[in-house]
Structure formats: C-alpha cells, structure tokens
Amino acid sequence: MPNFKTLDDLGDIAGKVALVRVDLNLPMQGGRASDVTRVEAVKPTILELADKGAKILLFAHFGRPKGQRNSTMSTSYVQDDVEDVLGKEVMYISEVSGPVVEQSIGILRNGDIGLLDNVRFWPGEEANDPEFAKAIAAHGDFYVNDAFSAAHRAHASTEGLARLLPAYAGRAMEIELKALDAALGNPEQPVAAVVGGAKVSTKLDVLENLVGKVQHLIIGGGMANTFLAARGVDVGKSLCEHDLTDTANRIMDSADHAGCTVHLPYDVIVAKEFAANPPSVRTCNVHEVAEDEMILDVGPQAVEALGDVLKTCRTLVWNGPLGAFEIEPFDTATVALAKTAAALTEGGSLTSVAGGGDTVAALAHAGVKDDFTFVSTAGGAFLEWMEGKDLPGVAALTA
C-alpha cells in the first residue's frame, strides 16, 4: 500500500488556507451540470475541512482551454452546481494566484469556500511550471488532492504543488487508493480481471500487465474477436484487428508462462447487422460464425462458465463491457456477469473493483453500480493504473 498522509494527519487547521485540487470537469447541458457525481465525491473532504475551520480554495480544470482564457470554460459555470451539492455558499475567484486571490482570502471567514478559475487557463499548469506552482502555493498552508481522475497528469496543480506544501490525500482519493490496492496492489487471490472494449490496441499495456498479476483473464468485447482470430477462428465480418493476431498470441503465451488462464468465449451472439433486435440474431459456437455475420456478444454458455470462474475467485477487476451493451440484445452477457459479480460481492466472497467510462455506464445499465465494492469514475487514470504505471499525482503524495 502506498504510504500517503490523509486528513486524519492534519492538526489544528482553523484559519489555515487549504489548497484543494478537485475534479469539476462536469458534463453540461443548458448551462447546468447534467451529472454532479464528481462534486458529490469531493463533498466529504470539503465539508470536513470547512467544519475544522480551514479557508478552502478549490481549484480544478474545466474542458481543454489550452493555456488561454476562454469564457465558455470558466469554473464560474459550475459554481451553482457546487453550491447545491455542498449546501454552502461558494465565492468565485477569477484568478489562481496574485493580489485577487490574496484579497479573497482576506474576505473569506474560517470554514468558507472559494472556487478559483480554471487552472488550465494558464500555460504553466499543463507544463508543470515550477514558478507557476510556487505562485499558487504562496497562498496556501497545505495541499489536498482529491482528484484521482487527474492523477495521471504531471501538472502544476496535481504534482507540482504537492512538492511545495505539506500534501494530503482527500477522502475520495484515499478511498480510491485503498480500493485499487485491494484490487491489484495486494489482493486476495485468486484474482480475475474482465477486460472488454472494442480494440486490443487500446488495451495492450493493460493486458500485458494483468497476465502477470491475475489468475484469470476474461476477454470480451470486440477485442475478444482478435484473440479468437489468433486461435484460428474465422470471425466473419466481426470487428477484428487482424494485424494484431501475433500480439494476441504473445499475450496468451505470456499468460501460460505466468499461470494465468485466458478465457475466450466459445459460444457467441451473432447478427448480420449491428442494430437493435435484428431478425438475423442467433447464438452459435465460435466455429460456426458465417462470413456475413458479426460477433456482438458472448453467448449464454460461456457467461455461465465465467460466472462459475468468479465463484472461485476472491478479487475481481473489471474494465470494459463483454459485448455491444448499448444495444439490445447485445447487453445480455455484460448484464448477466455483472449481476453474478454483484451477488458474490454482496455475499462477501468477492472484492469487486471496476472503472473506466464504458464500464460505469454498463454497470449502471445492469443496475449493479452500487453493489460493487468500488466503482471508479476516473477514465484515463484508472486505465493507466491497470497498465501498472506510476501516477504522478499519487507518487507526489507519497514522496
């Protein structure tokens, strides 16, 4: 487990200025956030610091302004949403350092909250410019990072500040790091990993890292077709990266040497067109896919067998759907296996950790998002963690 300080390590912070990195990159619709999950995630940290009497300065990015002010990407757009979730008034501050910030700190009372403007308006943020980080740090007494979703970026607000001020993990970051450690860092074995998605090419590093760490690797989605093709299966007109069959074979060889069983579907759901409930949909053995058919989901027998595999495991890491879950009936396998994993989790025999955009949507679609041990809303950071990479924002907290 990485050694990092949490809010439990803070002494008396009344009147101290807390610089708190959060993720407020919210999806917007009609001038308001359409999903405030990210604000809800950081609410416990913000309210705990407020209750202890700190003056809190929140900073975040919003969109990709590329180092220039852009009126449509100001954090002022999310101010109302942040206030609604926190149940507290928030002062918008149009800068991230300098006299305006200094003046605002003078106005804030103990327990008050200020929201700085989009930190990416300044080129020093993404360049992790030490002078830019120093200018921000000059206003704070300590730093809290509660934005795991931005932890894979070595930016001034995620990495630079942590090296200039006493640095702590916020409550959401703490929960995330503990869950990830339980999933791959120091898991209870046997461990199963479900890796789905369209392309092997986007998950190569994930697959290569996992075969050395898990006992069961379950491959689904379009990428399973590439592995099937590597095994000599004719996948018809399915999505398939035929140029990566050698790579797929190499991954399967590595798995063999590491004692990891790779699970590929042996029965599949196929159709001649990718549409909702097409007339041509049928279930068949992988060796019976016709030239004009495409594999769109894992078949019922394979799903049942995969459920039996999960029953023998103590830990599950899940990233990506098993089939084209957005369209019925190609959501069947993902929903069935997710429900099995959720039931095993609730029964206490399985620790289940899932993450990645499509994964969160798929588990929500299956109605089990709240039944997994932990579901990470971080996209890129979760993927890089699955690849076994060091995340700069986390490394800086443990330095």
Q: Give the strand tally.
A: 17
CATH fold type of the largest domain: Rossmann fold
Strand order of the largest sheet: 5-6-4-1-7-8
- CATH classification, class level of the largest domain: Alpha Beta
The shape is: elongated
Oligomeric state of the chains? single chain
Structural class designation = alpha/beta
Q: Percent of residues in beta strands?
A: 15-25%
Account of the 3D structure:
The chain has 399 residues and is an alpha/beta fold. It starts with 16 loop residues before the first strand and ends with a helix. The chain has helices spanning 37-51, 79-86, 99-107, 123-126, 130-137, 156-160, 171-185, 204-210, 221-230, 245-258, 300-311, 332-346, 357-365, 380-386, 392-398, and strands spanning 17-21, 28-29, 32-33, 55-59, 90-93, 113-116, 142-145, 167-169, 191-195, 216-219, 261-263, 267-271, 282-285, 294-298, 315-319, 351-355, 374-376. α9 packs across α10 and α11 runs parallel beside α12 (332-346). The strands form 4 sheets. A 6-stranded parallel β-sheet has the order 5-6-4-1-7-8, sandwiched between helices. It contains 15 helices and 17 strands. The protein has 2 domains: 7-174, Phosphoglycerate kinase, N-terminal domain (Rossmann fold), CATH 3.40.50; 187-386, Rossmann fold.
Question: Descriptors for this entry?
Answer:
single chain; 399 residues; alpha/beta; Rossmann fold; 2 domains; six-stranded parallel beta sheet; 15 helices; 36% helix; elongated
